[in-house]
Amino acid sequence: MSKEIQPKHPETAEKGVKSKGANIALWVLAIAFLSVAAVGNAYFASHFTFVVRVLLLVVLLVGAVVFAAFTNQGQKAITFIKESRHELRKIVWPTRQESTQTTLIVGAVCVVVALALWGIDSIIVSVVTFLTNLRF
């Protein structure tokens, strides 16, 4: 008789996952902050100085980002960014000498291919000119 109660949706059992209502409420607040920032900036353009409006915009935009970060999608985005930074630390970046050598090789190959294409184009132009100048 001692059964654990299993949630209907296993993905909602994860730590930190918000209900659909809470998620929607957070998105509504984030969109409201963005709307107030946009409309308020246009409406109060003549009432406040530029510096005050910029500061208020920054505060409202930060508030919108904070509310969006607490949503389920925001939590996934933050997790993705953290994992990406962790993976970036694993990369072995080339040295200055390796970068210089690779750049020079790419430049040389580009010059060789450009000369080859120029030569082929010159031959084709010569053949077409010869054929079009023939009079029968």
Automatic annotation (TrEMBL):
Pfam families: SecE. The chain crosses the membrane at residues 21-44, 50-70, 104-131. GO terms for molecular function: protein transmembrane transporter activity. Its main location: membrane. InterPro entries: SecE_bac, SecE_sf, Translocase_SecE/Sec61-g. Keywords: Cell membrane, Membrane, Protein transport, Translocation, Transmembrane, Transmembrane helix, Transport. It comes from the Bacteria. One of its GO terms (biological process) is protein targeting. It is found in: Membrane. The keyword Endoplasmic reticulum does not apply. The keyword Membrane applies. GO terms for cellular component: plasma membrane. Belongs to the SecE/SEC61-gamma family. Component of the Sec protein translocase complex. Heterotrimer consisting of SecY, SecE and SecG subunits. The heterotrimers can form oligomers, although 1 heterotrimer is thought to be able to translocate proteins. Interacts with the ribosome. Interacts with SecDF, and other proteins may be involved. Interacts with SecA. Essential subunit of the Sec protein translocation channel SecYEG. Clamps together the 2 halves of SecY. May contact the channel plug during translocation. This is Protein translocase subunit SecE. The gene is secE.
